[in-house]
## 1
Amino acid sequence: MPPSLHRSDLSSHGALQRCNAVSVLPPARGPEARIRSEAPRPLSAKSRHAARCVLLISRPLRAVWRQCIIPTRSGALSRSRGKEGPVARLFLEALFTSLRDDLQVLKKDLSVDMREVRCYLEDIGNRVSAVEVCEARQDEEVQWAHQEVLHLQEQHIEIQAQAEDLENQSQKNYVHIREVLTHAEESDLREYIGALFQYIVGVTKDINLKPDRVHRVDPPRPEEAPLADMLTCAHDFQMKENILHKARDAHRVRFQDHIPVSYQDLSAITLQRH
C-alpha cells in the first residue's frame, strides 16, 4: 500500500498537519536542495478546504477499508504485497464510485435549489418594482393633491372677497350707532333715531329722516347701563352718506345728555382686516 493511503495518514489532525507541512520528497542536490531548505509555504484556503472535505469523506469509509483487508489466523492484519494491491484498488474504485454518485446527487440538489433561489429572487425583484411603481404613483397623487389644495385656497380667498363685497354692498345703507338710550319702546326707536339723524344733519323736523328698520345689535342691558348699540337702515344711500358725513365733521355730537357714535356698518371680515 502506498504511503499516501496509509490509515495513519487518514486521521484528521495528522493529515492536516501533513497537508500544511512540506511534502515528503526524495533528497535533492544542488539548487533544488536550496529551494527545499527554505521555509515551507502555507496552503491556500481552497487547498485547506479540499483537504478537510477529503478527510470528512474518508472517515465513514474506514469501516469499508477494514473489511477489505484480510485478517490472519493470529488476528493481525495481513499487509502482504500480493493481497494489498487488489484490495486497495477495489477500495479506491468503490470510493470514487460513491463520490461520483454523491456529487451527481449534490449537483442535482444544487440545481433545484438554485432554481428555487432564482425564482425567489425574481419574485422579490417583481415586488420591488411594483412597490417602486406604486410609490411613484403616490408621489404624483400627492403633488396633484398639493396643487389642488393651492388652487382651492386661491378660490377660497376669491370667494371670501366676493362674499365680503356682497355683504358690504347689502349693508351700504346701514348705519351703526353706539351708546343709544334704550328707554324707549321698540315702536318709538324709529322716532328716536329719526330725531337723532335730524339733529346730526341739522335740518328741521319737517324733513323725514326716519330709518326704514332699527334693531338692537346687542341684547338689552340692565337699567343702570341703558346704553346699547343700534343698527339702522337708512331710506336711501344718499341719506346715509349725508348723515355719516355730518357725524364725522361734528366728531362728537351730544344728544339728550349722551354722545352717540355713528359709523358705517361693515362686514365682520372687513372689520377684522382693518
Note: Strands lie at 174-181, 213-216, 227-233, 261-264.
## 2
Amino acid sequence: MLPWGLISVWNIRAKHVVFSLICTDRPTYYICFKLRSKAHGSPLAMDLHPFFFFFFLYTLLKNYQKWRIECPEISADLRPSSILGLLQAGYHGVLRSRDPHGSKVLIYRIGQWDPKLFTAYDVFRVSLITSELIVKEIETQRNGVKAIFDLQGWQFAHAFQISPAVANKIAAVLTDSFPLKVRGIHLINEPLFFHPVFALIKPFLTEKIKERVYMHGNNYMQSLTEHFPVSILPQEYGGEEVSIDVLAEEWTNFIMASADYLRSISLVAQ
C-alpha cells in the first residue's frame, strides 16, 4: 500500500522549495537543475508567466519525489554501501571529459553485473546514485547525459530480471520522473537475445527517447566514434583515454567520498 503520509511530506517539501525560491534570492540547486535540465532550449518554457513556470517546477519536483516513494526498492537506500559490490566489480564508470555538446558520458558494463548477487533494482540504483550526484553540476543541468551500455556478457539470467514492472520503472526515469535530460543511449555488443528485453522496455518510452537510442552491435568502434571523439573514450572502446577500469575506480572513489550527502537524501532510517 502506498505510504500517502510520506508522499504528503514530500509534497510539502517540494512546495517549500519552490515557494522559498519565489520569495528569496537564495541559490538552491533544485531550481538550477529544474530550470536548466527541463527548460533549457525551450523558449516557450522560459517565456511563461512566473506563476506557471514555478507551477511547472513544482510539478517536476513532485513527480520525482512521488516516483521515489513508489519505487523504494530502487530509491529508498542511496547509501554507497548498498551497491558497493557492483562498484568494486567495475560495473560503472564516468568519462573524465564531456562530449562536444557538453553532455556527461556514463558507461555501464553489463558483464560486470552478477545477477546471482545483485538484482535489477540494485543495478538501477547505481544509475540513480550517479544521477543524484551529477545533477548538481551546472553544465550537466544544461546539457544532460549520454550513456554507453556495453552488453558483452549479457545472459538469460540478466534478462529474467527485467519484468514489465521493472521496465516501467526504468522508463519512468528516462522520461519525466528524474530532472535530467537523456541526450543519448548507446548500446554496444548487444546479443540477439537482448532485443526481446528492449522490446519490453520500448513501449514505455517516449518517442523522443526512442529516437535517441542507438544500437551499434559488435563492430561498434567506427559508429561509436561518430558520436564521441576518441580523445574522451577509454582505450577498450577505441579511444585515447585511460582504461575503463581506471575510470570505474575513479568514479567509485567519488561516490564513496559522497557518502554523507547520499545518506542525507536516503529515505531509509539512518
Note: Residues 4-70 form one domain.
## 3
Amino acid sequence: MLTVNPGKRITASEALKHPWICQRERVASVVHRQETVDCLKKFNARRKLKGAILTTMLATRNFSSKYDAQGEYLRPSSALHGPRQTVLLYLLLNFMSPCLCL
C-alpha cells in the first residue's frame, strides 16, 4: 500500500478491500506477531551490548592510571584507548542498528 511510485500504488478502492483495512480486527493484530517479537528481542540485546561497551569504554578511560608514583605520564596500554580505536568502536556501535520490522 505504501509505494512511492504512483503508477505502482494501489487505488483507494483496492486499499479499502485490502484485508488489513476491511478485516483489521483479525488480520492486522496477528500478522507478523512472532517476527515483531523476535525483532524486539534482537533490538533489546543490541541495546544492552551497546550500553555495556560504552560503560566499559568510559570506565577504562576514567579510571585507568595515567600517571605513575612519581607523577610521570604513562601511555595507556589498553586497546580501547587512542583516536583510531575510539573511531572503530564508534563505527561498530553505530552499525549495531535495530532490525527493521514491519
Note: The radius of gyration is 25 Å.
